[in-house]
Design a protein that fits this description.
The complex is a heterodimer of chains A (259) and B (260). Chain A has 259 residues and is of the alpha/beta class. Chain A has nine helices and ten strands. The chains are: A alpha/beta (259), B mainly alpha (260). The structure holds adenosine-5'-triphosphate and magnesium ion.
Chain lengths: 259, 260
């Protein structure tokens, strides 16, 4: 494995649901220990892209390489080996509601790595502390938490096994601005200190500026712009400009009825 | 044109049916193969065994008790028309063991356990918990489905065995307390008529029914989609298909056991 090989690379990935085309030839590369942020409008297929990489959805066409291995056709044990490299924060948290909060966080350690429950609990509590949750929260069920707390538990679960690659699907949505910044720092730290590769999705431009090395914008089923985060303000791309200004005027038209 | 439309519709239905049958067969194959390959989850298996075996006891017990009592009354009333009142003990014993305890027990378990499984797994599907399991390198077939299938297939026979005993007891209570039978004589009659094969058929049926109920609960839950409504539909489908399969399998197994 050489250092120039991208950690993740997508080539011409296509995915439709019935007649609805969601991904229409996505090309994307994420370098080793890089933090890439994908921005784009609601419903443009950002979450679908992540699920295709993880193999939760099967792309209709195209190749997805992780560490130089084509993962689109993997099955069974081979796929499990590749999934072991990943941590994923789901947009809707997706906590197991039959388990306690700490058991959720420790899940990957106990099931995936075969750690003993006692040791795993210690690690879980430590990860929870990093996202601002005390030990007493660990003994609650996920249904007893607020939306923002659930998100943070899901975040702790995603990073608990210190994965090589971490996907964050809207990590700061639903958090207050201060906690959002704590989470941004945490993501930056995971990438810097653990050398993890991060692929995040966000609508929060402030968060993108903080956590991204590079930004990619998805629109109409394609990646229409990528560049270093420093170029975000002078991308020369009218779509990106409109998105970061958050303006209703521009080339991106929302399908809403105007009065 | 009408005829062609009609044929086309039948064709589409048939293709849809084949698709479902294929998907169910693959699901069953994969699920069963995971029951025999490690890693196993003993903690989850125990949890399912308790939830299926122990917590279904009251429902199955009540059902078989009342059915045994009603059966005793009916048989007495019917057999007295040709002076064969003595057959009450025999018919209750054979009816309970071969047919009523397994079929009624299976149907009650379908309503209690099959529905709950479809709802739980369906909710996990639509809230992406099943996707989350996969990303945490845990196979949902191993973690969710295998423990349920094993627990269903092994615990329902125990439930039904208890149901048989309670059902026969129900018949006995009615016979001795209401119909004026001699207690010792009734027990002796029951004991004399029962053969191993009666119990074995009932238990084999129960195992098959337990498998079918949990399989339907898991299958419909696993493939549910579309939020709360989808989970509701999955729950209904799990109970309906399990009930139909139980009644069909009951006939087939009975035929197999007694045709030779
Ligand atoms: N399992 C599915 N079945 C059918 N359609 C789906 C499915 N998953 C996603 N879609 C469709 O694909 C499109 C993209 O969905 P996706 O969840 O990727 O959006 P997104 O970019 O993450 O949006 P948001 O920012 O709102 O989360 C949506 O229009 C959605 O309706
Ligand atoms: Mg999304």
């Amino acid at each position: 494995m050489n250092d120039t090989q991208p950690k993740i690379s997508l080539k011409d990935v296509r995915k439709s649901f019935g007649s609805k085309v969601v991904l229409d030839g996505v090309d994307l590369e994420v370098g080793r220990a890089e933090s890439l942020v994908v921005i784009g409008g609601s419903g443009t297929g950002k979450s679908v892209t992540l699920k295709c990489i993880l193999g939760l959805l099967r792309p209709d066409a195209g190749t997805i390489m992780v560490d130089g291995e084509d993962v689109t056709r993997m099955r069974g044990a081979e796929r499990e080996r590749v999934l072991n490299k990943f941590g994923m924060l789901f947009q809707g948290a997706a906590l197991f509601d039959s388990l306690l909060v700490w058991e959720n966080v420790a899940f990957g350690l106990i099931q995936g790595q075969g750690m003993r429950r006692g040791a795993a609990k210690e690690v879980a509590l430590e990860k929870m502390a990093q996202v601002g949750l005390g030990a007493e929260v660990g003994e609650l069920g996920p249904a007893e938490l607020s939306g923002g707390m659930q998100k943070r538990v899901a975040l702790a679960r995603a990073i608990a096994t210190d994965p090589e690659i971490i996907f964050f699907d809207e990590p700061t949505t639903g958090l207050d601005p201060i906690m959002a910044d704590v989470i941004n720092d945490l993501i930056v730290n995971s990438v810097r200190s653990l050398g993890a590769t991060a692929l995040s999705i966000t609508h929060d431009i402030a968060s993108a500026r903080k956590i991204a090395d590079r930004v990619a914008m998805i629109h109409g089923g394609k990646i229409i712009w990528t560049g270093p985060v420093g170029d975000l303000d002078n991308s020369g791309n009218p779509y990106v400009d409109q998105f970061i200004r958050g303006s209703a005027e521009g080339p991106i038209q929302m399908e809403v009825l105007r009065p | 044109m009408m005829i062609i439309d009609f044929l086309a519709r039948i064709g589409r239905l048939f293709i849809g049916f084949l698709g479902t049958a294929g998907r169910l067969s693959i699901f069953t194959g994969v699920a069963v193969s995971h029951c025999f390959r490690p890693p196993f989850f003993p903690r989850l298996l125990l949890q399912q065994m308790i939830s299926i075996g122990y917590y279904s006891l009251p429902v199955v017990g009540l059902t078989t008790l009342f059915t045994g009592m009603a059966l005793g009354l009916q048989i007495f009333e019917g057999s007295s028309r040709f002076n064969a009142e003595g057959s009450v003990a025999w018919i209750v014993a054979i009816g309970m063991t071969r047919e009523l305890a397994p079929v009624l027990g299976g149907l009650m378990v379908a309503g209690r356990v099959g529905a709950a499984m479809a709802a739980e797994i369906g909710t996990m599907r639509v809230t992406e918990q099943i996707d989350a399991l996969t990303t945490l390198s845990t196979n949902p077939f191993k973690y969710l489905i295998a423990p349920r299938l094993i627990a269903g297939t092994t615990m329902v026979p125990f439930l039904v065995l208890i149901g048989m005993i309670i059902g026969i007891l129900g018949g006995y209570l009615v016979a001795v307390n209401i119909l004026g039978f001699n207690s010792a004589g009734y027990i002796q009659n029951t004991w004399d008529i029962l053969e191993t094969v009666d119990i074995v058929t009932g238990i084999v049926k129960a195992g098959v029914f337990g498998f079918l109920v949990t399989l339907m609960g898991c299958y419909h839950g696993y493939y549910s989609r579309g939020g709360a409504q989808g989970v509701g539909a999955a729950t209904t489908n799990a109970v309906v298909t399990a009930s139909i399969l139980i009644l069909t399998a009951n006939l087939v197994i009975t035929q197999l056991f007694f045709s030779n």
